[in-house]
Specification:
Length: 193
């Protein structure tokens, strides 16, 4: 591929949680500034993710973040919301990519050519970078939610359906940041009627 072709790596974080947005990131790495240690965000420690987050922000040619809200997730389903967040992330890039490599099997509709790569977050450095940006951004949003909605434990479980989260939901009720189309939340809402 031509050296001048701008390739964006794209990934999302937060498809499985019961609360909070789905966050996607798009990253165009600088071939002249390789970033050591890039990997799928899920296999990195929080400390390592945060260090790489800062390096990516500093050294990448472009970084874009896109978010789809819990209500959008409920309206169009989690897959479509994740693809929408990816479109928004690519649109937020300061440079327009000529090609995008996306983690997974589904492709967002973009203005450039798109390749979906299963396991891409572990194989392609730009997708690894996007997975780190998306995860650290989403985790930070969930820590903010923890301050706004004390008692749910969002800083610990980040909205995932842990025992702690499900217990808090039962005790404290469903919030506007909960995904009402997700089964554990649906069941609770039916019990409250």
């Amino acid at each position: 591929m031509n050296k001048d072709v701008l390739i964006a790596g794209v990934d999302e974080a937060g498809c499985a949680p019961l609360a909070g947005p789905v966050v996607a990131a798009a990253v165009i790495l600088d071939p002249n500034k390789p970033i050591a240690g890039l990997a799928d965000s899920k296999v990195l420690s929080q400390k390592k993710r945060e260090a790489l987050f800062a390096m990516i922000q500093r050294d990448a040619l472009a970084v874009g973040v896109g978010i789809a809200s819990p209500s959008e997730i409920d309206d169009i389903n989690i897959l479509q919301a994740a693809l929408l967040a990816m479109q928004r992330a690519v649109a937020a890039l300061q440079l327009a990519p000529s090609f995008a490599q996306v983690d997974g099997r589904n492709k967002p509709k973009l203005a450039c050519k798109v390749e979906a790569i299963i396991g891409g977050d572990a194989l392609i450095p730009a997708i690894s970078a996007a997975s780190i940006i998306a995860k650290v951004t989403r985790d930070a949003l969930m820590v903010e939610m923890d301050l706004k909605y004390p008692g749910y434990g969002f800083a610990q479980h980040k909205g995932y359906p842990t025992k702690m989260h499900v217990e808090a939901l039962k005790q404290l009720g469903v919030l506007d940041i909960h995904r009402r189309s997700f089964k554990p939340v649906q069941i609770l809402l039916k019990e409250l009627v």
